[in-house]
Amino acid sequence: MHKLIPKALRHGDTIGLISPSSPSPDHEKIGQAVTYLEKLGYRVKPASHFNCQGEHRRELDRRKRHDLHEMFADRSVKAIFCLRGGSGATRLLEKLDYGLIAQNPKILAGYSDITALSIALYAKTGLITFSGPMLATELHSPSPYTEENFWKVLESTSTTHQIINHPSHPVRIYKKGSASGTLLAGNLTVLSCLVGTPYLPQMKESLMLIEDINEEPYRIDRLLSHFYNAGLLQRCSGLLFGQFRREAMAFDREHPLLDILSYYTDKMAPHIPVVAGLSYGHIDDFLTVPVGADCTLLAGEEQLSICMEPAVSSS
């Protein structure tokens, strides 16, 4: 697949704001996020229907698609940040103008329900997007770790970016090995909704990084079994687990979720590395990762290295 690499953000650029998933009632946090971006030297441009609400889904979806197209078509907008997750993004996929988006590649940032857009845009256009913080959930007051990782990925074009876990987040290497491929990251529940659709990219030679929030272990088991039964987990060159609660995963005590991760590790081919506990998900300190970027994983006895090629260009 030919990849579309967006241009890096520069101070003074305009950032478009959209709300393709749920609206947010917290106008104070939205205002704080806007102030935060402006203090960093960026201009901010809300879309026409930013944070809109409505009783009729058809009209609401039309407005959301209009905003997405508006921001991609606007030459003055250099990046697009999402308001929050929630639900609704999967309903937009069928009628998106992927040709328009491919002709105007630019940064799109968001996670959780925004996974639907990130994965679909990569599948249909090859555009690299960014699974990272959003306005109403993190950018109103990002932690230093979240902040550093977010801007490093969006602004740096010169060096390979290495994923470094937060020091308070333990990691378990379930299966040692090395792998390289396309990084496909997102929310497990949303990803499962894309199985069997044209909006899920080829999983062959991909590094799959998944997270979720407050799902019972039996549901995580069901979702992973769906991917396995569809023959998708087996095609990955590496499997990475992020976080599944608000607090970081702990490996020093028994938990049903750990049994499930171990079970699916055993079902993977011997040469496929599996790692759990990455600082990715609905947590205060979390990584921004480029969906669709080339990635290399090395998981050894006492060594973990995850490196990504620059996901933004200078021109």
TrEMBL record:
Domain LD-carboxypeptidase N-terminal: 15-132
Sections of the chain in a coiled coil: none
Active site residues of this protein: 112 (nucleophile), 211 (charge relay system), 282 (charge relay system)
Keyword DNA-binding: no
Pfam families linked to this entry: Peptidase_S66, Peptidase_S66C
Transmembrane segments: none
GO biological process, one term: proteolysis
Domain LD-carboxypeptidase C-terminal: 180-297
Similarity section: Belongs to the peptidase S66 family.
Protein name: LD-carboxypeptidase
Native source organism of the sequence: Prosthecochloris marina
